[in-house]
């Protein structure tokens, strides 16, 4: 009996090592090709069946690199394939449109209608050398060592929470009067990702692709995929001081106000002196996106102190022409019970990784597990 058991186990070991295949009877239904599966996934995953290029171009007629319609659509597909917290993936078209409109309202405002790849105060004036390296002239900079205002020395590669390594930046020797962009952590991309600790989160998320954003933060201003991913990462994981992400604020609270509180609540919820016009511009961008997408009503303005008053003042003054049509179509926030039920079912991940193990790697892990277990049992039988 031991002999037969040993032979059987040897067969198991061999199969686990070489991935034995099972011969299946021919199916009367032809198998879908990889291209067909990919095409079906693209349609299913992409919010661009709702956001047409004509809408994108209307909202941002002067968009510059890294903002393009194709880049956005591809980034959404890749994000939703590779991350546990999808974006723009509500159960109904209304839910998808609501989240997309809120997202567009914020990113259009933060990026100056997709015209600002880099924060104006830090790098509106820049130059590029012969190999493409970018150098910035921050507002007021006249040379010498520059102190990055977005370098938190409390966040380092060895602290918790951590951050990209940063320090005072020397003046460039090859480009006098400028500092190297890749040594600065100012705002870049659709949501103007800033601070060395936020770049560290993005770098961790892109590690599977072999990208070190800490060493090259300016990729967020030049690479379409990384630019959009920087915004998706913030939207799905950052909570600010309100303990919910922007995505959760839309889905669970039905609130645009809470998304603003996450993004810039310290300055705009309520508005500190001088930021009223900033809120009005943001509201007008949101209303324009809502109209372009054809939502039924705009989201609640609750969740951000004073936002409804700012909305009324903006419409009344004529500064928010896109919001006038929504004056009587503002949604009510979700009930407390509905919010709690929704949040209890939400996936909570601090920093999704962009990418996942390949199927071959997974198969190898299974094979090695079977092999190890079989060897233990074989030694016992012998």
From TrEMBL:
<dbReference type="InterPro" id="IPR000726">
    <property type="entry name" value="Glyco_hydro_19_cat"/>
</dbReference>
<keyword id="KW-0611">Plant defense</keyword>
<feature type="signal peptide">
    <location>
        <begin position="1"/>
        <end position="20"/>
    </location>
</feature>
<dbReference type="Pfam" id="PF00182">
    <property type="entry name" value="Glyco_hydro_19"/>
</dbReference>
<dbReference type="GO" id="GO:0006032">
    <property type="term" value="P:chitin catabolic process"/>
</dbReference>
<dbReference type="GO" id="GO:0008843">
    <property type="term" value="F:endochitinase activity"/>
</dbReference>
<dbReference type="InterPro" id="IPR023346">
    <property type="entry name" value="Lysozyme-like_dom_sf"/>
</dbReference>
<dbReference type="GO" id="GO:0016998">
    <property type="term" value="P:cell wall macromolecule catabolic process"/>
</dbReference>
<feature type="domain" description="Glycoside hydrolase family 19 catalytic">
    <location>
        <begin position="143"/>
        <end position="301"/>
    </location>
</feature>
<keyword id="KW-0732">Signal</keyword>
<dbReference type="GO" id="GO:0006952">
    <property type="term" value="P:defense response"/>
</dbReference>
<protein>
    <submittedName>
        <fullName>Chitinase</fullName>
        <ecNumber>3.2.1.14</ecNumber>
    </submittedName>
</protein>
<keyword id="KW-0378">Hydrolase</keyword>
<keyword id="KW-0326">Glycosidase</keyword>
<keyword id="KW-1015">Disulfide bond</keyword>
